[in-house]
Amino acid sequence: xxxxxxxxxxxxxxxxxxxxxxxxxxxxxxxxxxxxxxxxxxxxxxxxxxxxxxxxxxxxxxxxxxxxxxxxxxxxxxxxxxxxxxxxxxxxxxxxxxxxxxxxxxxxxxxxxxxxxxxxxxxxxxxxxxxxxxxxxxxxxxxxxxxxxxxxxxxxxxxxxxxxxxxxxxxxxxxxxxxxxxxxxxxxxxxxxxxxxxxxxxxxxxxxxxxxxxxxxxxxxxxxxxxxxxxxxxxxxxxxxxxxxxxxxxxxxxxxxxxxxxxxxxxxxxxxxxxxxxxxxxxxxxxxxxxxxxxxxxxxxxxxxxxxxxxxxxxxxxxxxxxxxxxxxxxxxxxxxxxxxxxxxxxxxxxxxxxxxxxxxxxxxxxxxxxxxxxxxxxxxxxxxxxxxxxxxx
Length: 394
Prior knowledge:
Layout (H helix, E strand, L loop, with lengths): L10 E2 L9 E2 L4 E2 L9 E2 L4 E2 L9 E2 L4 E2 L9 E2 L4 E2 L9 E2 L4 E2 L9 E2 L4 E2 L9 E2 L4 E2 L9 E2 L4 E2 L9 E2 L4 E2 L9 E2 L4 E2 L9 E2 L4 E2 L9 E2 L4 E2 L9 E2 L4 E2 L9 E2 L4 E2 L9 E2 L4 E2 L9 E2 L4 E2 L9 E2 L4 E2 L9 E2 L4 E2 L9 E2 L4 E2 L9 E2 L26 H11 L11
Antiparallel strand pairs: 1-2, 3-4, 5-6, 7-8, 9-10, 11-12, 13-14, 15-16, 17-18, 19-20, 21-22, 23-24, 25-26, 27-28, 29-30, 31-32, 33-34, 35-36, 37-38, 39-40
């Protein structure tokens, strides 16, 4: 031959005197005739067979970070290659993740999850007390006061239930209202003390309880109500103070919602009494709820304390004064045939009465001589307590 032939595309002859051209090795190519050496594939490209006239670009999701590569490498998890011919992979941005090799794009974190660094292979769930309401969050948001998140991966926070409150951000659970306080709506940041007349006897109450009858609450925030003292009562619920028992009534125990009326024969002059006083001798009270006792009228007596009525002096006795407890026997020479009388009568002419109650009247001793009638009259008048009509004496 007059001359040597040029090696065809994809082949080469790197020595003199060669009788044939060699195909370019994998990872290289020959894109012109008569090449002495093949050109290695550029970064981002590869040649997987011999005799190539051009290298192929790495597919999306793959890369070639050096020349002469026979195959591309897949992007690792957390990385991606969105186009062909990439020489390196890019880390997934914050809020995104790559959970497999050879990804062409990263996935967005779901609501309730976040990715706070580059190249994450999975997203992290929001901690309790925090939330992420939208996708692609790089951090979670703390629950505001009055709300909480009791589980991980929450997309929103829950309002505190009635009886509970949240006073700081980022709470995983709400706090129960302390005894003596309450919240009656959701999302409260503080509890309200029970008003006067009410109480809260345990934690976590959504409403306070009214004080029962017989009890009262005189300040806010009470955990129990106070019993009314003896002499006082509370006849309705939610009382802020107790009432005094009115005159004519009493209460001798604590925690009462009614007062008892004084029984007949007894009285209570003042309010707030713990007991009734029995009527004194010579006095009586015939009805309940008495505030005073009444004097027995003349001719009647009450010989015991606590009398409900007066007793008429029996025949033969009298009582000229009111408020007495004994009857006076008629002295000798006088009589009283009716009961309940105030004075004795002198025995009429032709009659006599010899009996004499020596405890009340001393007998009269006459001299052998007959006293003048005026003396007799004076003696008998004195004997009869000055109550006799002298016209009846002979």
